[in-house]
What we know:
Blueprint lengths: L1 H12 L18 H6 L2 E4 L4 E7 L4 E5 L10 H9 L3 E5 L18 H14 L5 E7 L1 H11 L4 E9 L16 H11 L4 H12 L7 H12 L4 H8 L9 H6 L4 E6 L11 H8 L6 E4 L5 H4 L1 H13 L1
Helix pairs in contact: 3-13, 4-5
Amino acid sequence: MRTKFFYILIIVMSFTSCKSAKTSLNTTALTYASFKENQKSFLSSDGNIKYIDKGKGNVILLLHGVPSSSWLYRKMIDELVAEGFRVIAPDMLGFGNSDNPDGYDLYNAHNHGKRILELMNGLKINTWTHITHDAGGLWTWELLKQDKKRIEKLILLNTIIYEEGFKPPIRMKRGFFAKTSMWMYRNGITTNLLLNGLFKSGLMENNLTENEIEGYKIPLREGKTKAMYYFFSKTCNALPDYSNLITSLNLPVVLIWGKYDKMLQINPQKNKLIKALKIKDENIHIIEAKHFIQEEKPKEINKIIVDFLKE
Length: 311
């Protein structure tokens, strides 16, 4: 057990060679504190869900993954609102500013999907365009298993789909070691190491300011690791197979993917995915980016989204 612990710690620490965040003149002055002030609250069956709800018009739901939150979409939200859409961006339970109740299976994909439906039912939104990233794909497939009719159009951003291409940087077994790792993430011992590693792997170049990194760091320091614990100790070791569900879907799909993503690789699954979802050639966009494409190419992604929804 001790050998495994130090092995993973060495892996995490090896990420520290990444460049420190640089100051960018083009970065918005939005702080995480002010972002949180604009969030609303919905009481789901399992706890409070914090979410952004801005604009009027056809609804777009923006779904994050692990270990991010709706903060990931901060560079995209206002521009989509300005284009005439109503944008909903939740912090899933156990992430961001949402509640973080005790439980293990509480954070499985089925329950995450259930809570998305509860939120949209509470907002009296019957159908919407659904945009998903990273582990949000799992929660999306589970939502669709529960009610296929709710999503009118689907936009995939470097999201979990098949075992092919799924290369998580860490896989853990449930128990002492994984819990200790989560404790280290939230108590400041390896918080910076985790984020530095993610940004080194997930960005072409880490130009995030300290202010922007705070939006990722604060939830971890507030203890938001229970959903992460489930993901790293369960999902990463036994990825569900949604092949039959995906093949059965009949809705317009856009694929927007970072070409150089090593955690969710497009090439091993591209042909299978295009065939299963019947994605048109004009709706396939492989862009010059890595994993966190919302950080690297927000305007390019928004243009693709708007052009697709307004055609």
